[in-house]
Prior knowledge:
The chain has 2 domains: 13-260 and 463-483, Aldehyde Dehydrogenase, Chain A, domain 1 (3-Layer(aba) Sandwich), CATH 3.40.605.10; 265-445, Aldehyde Dehydrogenase, Chain A, domain 2 (3-Layer(aba) Sandwich), CATH 3.40.309.10. Helix content is 39%, strand content 21%. It is built from 15 helices and 23 strands. α1 packs parallel to α7. The longest helix has 24 residues, at 107-130. It is globular and about 65 Å long. The termini are far apart. The chain binds nicotinamide-adenine-dinucleotide. Nicotinamide-adenine-dinucleotide (NAD) binds next to α7 and α8. GO terms for molecular function: 5-carboxymethyl-2-hydroxymuconic-semialdehyde dehydrogenase activity. One of its GO terms (biological process) is 4-hydroxyphenylacetate catabolic process.
Amino acid sequence: MSGHFIPDGLPAHIRHYIDGQSVDSVGGERFPVLDPVTNANYATAAAGQKADIALAVTAATRAFREGPWPHMKARERARILNKVADAIEDSETRLAELETFDTGLPITQARGQARRAAENFRFFADLVVAQLDDAMKVPGAQLNYVNRKPVGVAGLITPWNTPFMLESWKLAPALAAGCTVVLKPAEFTPLSASLWAGIFEEAGLPQGVFNLVNGLGEEAGDALVKHPGVPLISFTGETTTGQTIFRNAATNLKGLSMELGGKSPCVVFADADLDAAIDSALFGVFSLNGERCTAGSRILVERPIYDEFCEKFAARARNIVVGDPHNPATEVGALVHPEHYAKVMNYVEIGKSEGRLLAGGGRPAGLDTGNYVAPTVFADVGPESRIFQEEIFGPVVAITPFEDDAGALALANGVKYGLAAYVWTNNLRRAHTFAQALEAGMVWLNSHNVRDLRTPFGGVKASGLGHEGGFRSLDFYTDQQAVHITL
Ligand code: NAD
């Protein structure tokens, strides 16, 4: 494709990082890595197998048992985590370029992800220093206190949407808590993860604390989940993968944190600020190419404003700039991989018989190659249809009318997922009662998806198990031992 930006110094091959060394798989296995704009095979990556996971777990176990990482004072660990944040900020431009090249995310949005990744490290550095020790007294009778101990080697398995930022979301609390880690990044997008080794070395993280094994989920990911020396797995990805991991982790009774899929509703009442709701709903489903777990991919609109909403929303969707992700004017880039593109396009075709097509509906004009999908809007979508029920994970939205609050609630809760929800109304009482009744882990009232890192992040129903965010993340990576003393 002419004019397609290719970052300087791209690696031709991406390796694992085990015990401070950049290494290939023991058996030499590799897999191809594609550029989503051209689908050219621009690099290979080492495809980790059971033997490679075993080496990484051995290194992480030694670093945990022999230290110094788990035994360092919280302040000392925090100093290193802040240096990690500095290094991420210093490499923001490079990081954003690589992330955009590998994922197809618009460059302006990839930059935001780099800043958020640095913020995750600063946040958990602060939090672990500020953490208070619990002590409980029964005057004259008993003193009880809690020893907090890092659990051990944490297995971190991450998806390909905003890969670097989501990796930071697990790495920062695991390391802050004193765990050592084995990271298995998503196979579609191994490029930005290859920066971690240099960042951690520059910050002075002791050897063996951070290990990374690339590879396919069914091979490297599976071996990590089944390894008896890894007591806990933090996973973000599809609900069906989460179910497989849940089953496979049962033998060794592992601790599990699961952030899974979503089909989040954006509910717009007739009394809402319509322009603000439309702005936010567009951002909610089309930012990050729609490849966003918290995407507001079902828009429910109260009948009196339904036609006006559909018309205005579709007009805006038709004006979204789709194109080369490296162009700063681009609002929707290329989907991550041809397999995912085929999945999204299949839903676009299904939608044509399930709803009324108002915008998009296929490949945008003038973009004949690469994984481009025009922002696609279907109206009059029934609650039983597949595009209402199933996670598409692309720039495709279903709009459905409702008549009253009870009807809106039934539609909003009428899917197996329960990750996020967005509500637009100027009625304060309705906003709060409706939020309370929603089956969703997170609700945004009259607001965009912006999150304070202290708040719980996680879903209910098929969207997840456990919460991340603030002290909840530190708790996951920490054993709490109660010590009782009779006075
Ligand atoms: P995925 O489940 O296909 O893969 C996620 C990771 O799991 C990858 O690293 C993959 O290699 C690995 N994996 C796959 N099979 C495995 C197995 N059998 N054992 C161990 N590991 C295995 O998900 P994806 O397509 O990469 O990501 C998109 C999904 O992630 C969407 O469903 C999205 O909603 C979800 N997601 C959720 C959140 C959240 O916080 N709730 C955030 C981002 C993405």
